[in-house]
Design brief:
With about 190 residues, the chain is of the alpha+beta class. The chain contains four helices and ten strands; from the N terminus they run E-E-E-H-E-H-E-E-E-E-E-H-E-H. Helix 1 links the parallel strand 3 and strand 4. Helix 1 runs parallel beside helix 4 and helix 2 runs parallel beside helix 3. The relative contact order is 0.20.
């Protein structure tokens, strides 16, 4: 089974290409123009064991908002494409992930019902050229465009650690939820569809 997704999207604000393979080895080629965001997406690939290519040309002269949010939209759509009919997946995943003094939690359901519950108060407004508040915007875009119910929470004192722990927790939870389980017959839902 080939569980890959690939999508290009061009607007007046961004030009984005995302390609992913859910059954990869964690190899990534990321270039968004925002170093910290590149680091986060590389962590998603590594900890999610997905091969991920992301190329973005965004209006960074304005700020990073469109780049990060629109990347979330395209990533989520490519993810939905890779998941296909969702037959045989575990569907639900969760992860507590510590990073030094910080602790992040992610629980997600590949449900077809997009929803984001996000709870994190970051001490610093910026991590390099990345605005901390864009973390919530990225995950909201991913949730909506992929149809995933997503709960994220982080505590800590170091903004870099908190954000990185959130991205890694998401990757690990997604890896578990998207995993194929030979005992699952068809779609894991009493409704028969996701």
């Amino acid at each position: 089974m080939n569980r890959t997704g690939s999508l290009a999207r061009k607007t007046g604000e961004t030009d984005i290409f995302v390609s992913l393979d859910l059954d990869g080895e964690g190899v990534s080629q990321i270039d968004t123009g925002i170093g910290f965001f590149d680091h986060m997406l590389s962590a998603v690939a590594k900890h999610g064991l997905m091969d991920l290519t992301v190329r973005v040309q965004g209006d960074l002269a304005v700020d990073g908002h469109h780049t990060v949010e629109d990347t979330g939209i395209v990533f989520g759509a490519a993810l939905a494409q890779a998941l296909g009919d969702k037959k045989g997946i575990r569907r639900v995943g969760s992860c507590f992930l510590p990073m030094d003094e910080s602790l992040a939690f992610c629980a997600l359901d590949i449900s077809g019902r997009p929803y984001l519950a996000f709870d994190a108060a970051f001490p610093a407004e910026m991590c390099g050229g990345y605005a901390s508040e864009l973390t919530e915007e990225f995950f909201r875009a991913v949730s909506v465009s992929s149809g995933i119910t997503l709960h994220l929470k982080a505590e800590g004192r170091n903004t870099h650690h908190m954000i990185e722990a959130l991205y890694k927790a998401f990757a690990r939870a997604l890896r578990d939820a998207a995993a194929l389980d030979p005992r699952v017959k068809g779609v894991p839902s009493t409704k028969g569809v996701l």
